[in-house]
Amino acid sequence: MKKLLMIIFTENSNIGASILCSLAREYGWDTDIYFVPPNLSNIDNENNIKLFIDEYKPDLISFTFKSFERIQALYLAKMLKSNLSIKIIAGGVHPTLMPEDVAIIQLFDTIIVGDGMGIWKDVLDNYNNYDNLNGKNIIYGKSHPRKELYTNYFHSKSQIERMKSTETANILTAIGCMNKCNFCHSGNQKFFPMNIENVAQCVIDLYNKYDVRNFHFLDDLFSYNLKRLQKFREIIKESGLDIKFSSQISGMANVFNKEIAEELVKLGVETVNFGIETASPKLLKFLNKKQSVEDCYNAVQICHDFKLNCVINLMFGIPTQNEDDYECTLEFVKRAKPDSVSCFFYTPYPGTKLYDYCFDYKYLPESFDRNKFDWFKPCINGISDVQLKLNNIDYELANMYIEKIHEIVDNDKLLLKKMKIIDLHPWIIVGTSRHYY
To answer: From the CB of residue 208, how many other CB atoms can be counted at a distance below 10 Å?
Structure first.
């Protein structure tokens, strides 16, 4: 039996790798997933993956990586290419958005652009025929006609251990997005919501197999359609299992309504997260958010009415964003009174209209090549910190308004207030720089 090794980055969970590994097993392959932690040195990751490969002995290695994981992925690919005679292919978000950027480096025998599910059998059957033809061996994917395969997951041993220890699993309910926000590439993908019966069955299986109690829906579209949400809840209820959804669910302000909120409450959802980004009408139009300021106010108010914790995401450092725009957002926070606010800085990523806008209007240096991504060096703190300083952006002003917003909505004070509920027992706070538990 041939062996396929998928290599993933940043988080020990990757839906694309999981469904491709599951499909490979249908085609008679043994599969495993290797997670490369972002907090280890290159030398440590290099030594660890060498030991893993020596033991597993894969016939084929596949990298899947996002744009901000590019440097780490290419470093390991170069190391493996110089030490192994195994075919190595690349796929995922960055190879899909910038295949020429990946191809020109000549580290991968094949690059898969887009959805690999529909061509996966051909790739696995013919992988030995692939060769790095001057970095031009690019294959364009297509979707698989059997849509139920998109909810079949394979998990590695370390992923199963993580799910069992945290009682948490990631789920995807749709691919692509119906909206076409200018800062996000999801809208460029062909949108299709996964069969909700299959999604519900996946949740039930993870509950039964690994005692998962907390499900994190990675997309914003789980709660976009009332009938779909009702069907999901009916299936979970009919299972007779005590499955709860107390973790936060992402919502879309332009379609959120009282009926959807009521269904979420019945499911046991406690928190809804909205990508508000800004309360400036000018910027909402510039970002093509397809939501009005009124939509944003209504979404927060509905959460208050149904006793749902409301978390809003706000974006700072957007091209053209000025003090008037920040004032609009500050006024929104004052009046809407969300329960929690997450502030982050805009970073231009390939495959988006705003990425090209940043080049066209000189927000990025002329020395940067828009067709390559070798100039981007990610910050370990993620989007909560400035990943890349753009020209003509007043970051001092942005930070000043972030501080003003945090004075209004202090997440730490809110947490401590809620802790009074359990003051009859000893408690501690454990967390990272961004998240508290």
So the answer is: 12
